[in-house]
Amino acid sequence: MIDIFNASKMFITSDIHFFHNNICKYCGRPYNFESNEEVLQMNEDILKKFDELPDEVGTVIWNLGDIAYGKLITKSETPFETLKSLVIRMKGEHRTLVLVLGNHDKDLYKFLHKKTNHNNIVKFYMDLGFDYVFTKPFFFDDNIIISHEPFYVNPCSGLKNIHGHVHNSPMTEDYFEVGIENYDMKRVAAEADNMEDIPDREIVETGKKINLNDYVNVCWDNINFEILDFRKILKKIKR
Q1: Which of 202, 153, 144 is nearest to 173 (CA)?
Q2: Rounded to whole angstroms, how far apart are CA atoms 69 and 192?
Q3: What's the DSSP call for residue 212?
């Protein structure tokens, strides 16, 4: 059994967004969002980064959510098989894949679970090839919280948060001052992709401030389209 919290080789990334045309527009990825061919080339270029990782027992790859999204996959005749082929390539022969579910992973499941005869989101992603699937934020160790969306950390707590979700948008000290979460982002994405709308939510002013040094953004669009060495991040946080 691989210890996914203390493996010999550990890597981390987030918000890959396979198949998502509009992510190229939103985040400045070097592909024409109007060209499906270029978006499929984006998929291939991302997979090549996984090909470069050690393919051996003890290699663990953490992904903090939003694996895929958009009409190219939701309208596919064989969406599950298509997604599984990508996950198998990410995994290789011996790697262990960990997924922390993001908002788009949950949206994608809603669109595909009936087509694929799944009634459990964890089983859906494990059947795709992921070895471990987390549905909520959790403690990685005593002072590190792993999450898809940034998780509020009291500046006096000594806690750190490794997260995705914000892509290449910088965190700000007042990120949590309004409890809107990712409502606006989800609405824009839903409308742009002609998907069903997101119901209105209550907006709550919280007044919460954060220390930006407590947050590590591992989004694909924030890390120069690379997969990071997780151990180096942990070592830096624990200094």
Answers
A1: 153
A2: 12
A3: G
170 within 8 A of 157, measured Cβ to Cβ: no
Q: With beta carbons less than 8 A apart as the criterion, state whether 50 and 227 touch.
A: yes
CA-to-CA distance for 126 and 141, rounded, in angstroms? Answer: 24
- Taking Cα atoms as reference points, which of 157, 176, 160, 134 lies closest to residue 217? 160
Give residue-wise pLDDT tens across range 164-208.
Answer: 999 999 898 988 876 555 444 444 444 444 444 444 555 556 668
For strands 138-139 and 160-163, give the pairing.
unpaired
| pLDDT single digits (tens) 103-124 | 999 999 999 998 898 999 999 9
In 3D, which of 177, 173, 175 has the Cα closest to residue 213?
A: 173
Residue 54's nearest CA partner among 225, 231, 180 is: 231
21, 73 in Cβ contact below 8 A? no
Q: How far is CA 135 from CA 100, 121, 230, in A?
A: 6, 9, 20
User: What's the whole-model pTM score?
Assistant: 0.88
Q: Which two tokens stand for residue 155?
A: 């500046």
